[in-house]
UniProtKB/TrEMBL annotation:
It comes from Streptomyces viridiviolaceus. Keywords: Signal, Transport. Residues 1-21 form the signal peptide. It holds the Pfam family SBP_bac_1. PANTHER family: ARABINOSE-BINDING PROTEIN-RELATED, OSMOPROTECTIVE COMPOUNDS-BINDING PROTEIN GGTB. The keyword Signal applies. Belongs to the bacterial solute-binding protein 1 family. The keyword Zinc does not apply. This is ABC transporter substrate-binding protein.
Amino acid sequence: MRPRSTLLTGCTVLLTLGATACGGGEPVSAGGGDQSLSGQTVTVAGVWSGSEQENFQKVLDAFTEKTGAKTQFVSTGDNVSTVIGSKIEGGDAPDVVMVPQVGVLQQFARKGWLQPLSKEVESEVDAGYAGVWKKYGSVDDTLYGLYFKAAHKSTVWYSPQALDQAGVEPPKTYDEMLEAGRAVSDSGLAAFAVAGQDGWTLTDWFENIYLSQAGPEKYDALATHKLKWTDAGVVKALTTLGELFKDRQLIAGGSKGALNTDFPGSVEKVFGPEPQAGMVYEGDFVAGVAKDQFGRNIGEDADFFPFPGVDGNKAPVVSGGDAAVVLKDGEHRDAGMELVRYLASPEAAAVWAGEGGFLSPNRNLKPSAYGDEVTRATAVSLIEAGEAVRFDMSDQAPAAFGGTKGVGEWKLLQDFLRDPSDPRATADALESAAAKAYQD
């Protein structure tokens, strides 16, 4: 039995009854409709490339049609903090940045780079978003970031054909997931494709295990470094993760193969023309890659189950997201603020929602805006989680620890994937890196 049917609750029922809390009202328009920004060009920087950039461009094009403002998107790659800092120093600051980490947003705000969002934007946020999203977009009670694109990072994607061939159902517990993986391996495919070349995917593995094992209070404490990484709960989560990493039956290509696989490559190993694995753990955005790059029909030959609870504990709900911020040094920051106001509307979210590979934290976006049942289910699940959602831990950390290639948590978990034999030593190294980053 596939889990998506159990997720289509609450909002879909309320919509039938005509309620508006989950998106049943008329979309709230943002910005003007009178081409009032004609002649201006809003520069927007963000990490997106490929299909994500193409789909976001459709949102920007809709903004242009509405306001007359042209847009120019610049892809920063993963090192957003370094790239934007260089642009500001060089007098070439973009107007709007789509920031993928809470820690980077906080860093930008404390450096004095950001313009507080307008009262109009804040009103849209209050009307359409759970309080947790405003919290993560604020620094010292001032709203700087509008979360336009969210991620549901507690989803495990699988090939129904691979599980059927192995004679297993989508698992309900972490141990059952490993057992299912071994059955998939016995049937001729590896269990999991792991994108170890991208360190951020490894942090997501850790966070789901840790949140389930340790609980939300310790998760929050570790995320803010009020709890040290040498804590026994961290060592326990690393030990659990290490059991997966060292099992060659479970990882496509073993640790060496995983370390040479980036995120798109991990999706290709499950949903590409020559499958090598039956499952890939990552967020809902897996669906966009599977659909756009490999032509998979979401819900038919690509599906998901919730990341299962570990050791009999509750299943985790980890999220992430990209927040739109306005830079003070941007040449057209007022037009940039109007873009952010537009992004706060369900009208803007609906443009990308219909393309796939996207979730909105805006509860005023109707679930029917999503193009397939599976994406609709993940979106409703995220909205219903409300204040229980826990934001991606590495995205809350300073970028030097949780968001930069080759250093900090990304590198140390890659090292752990390469050799998972000493979880305690890895915890010690993580604490040393975290202590330095938080002090800086």
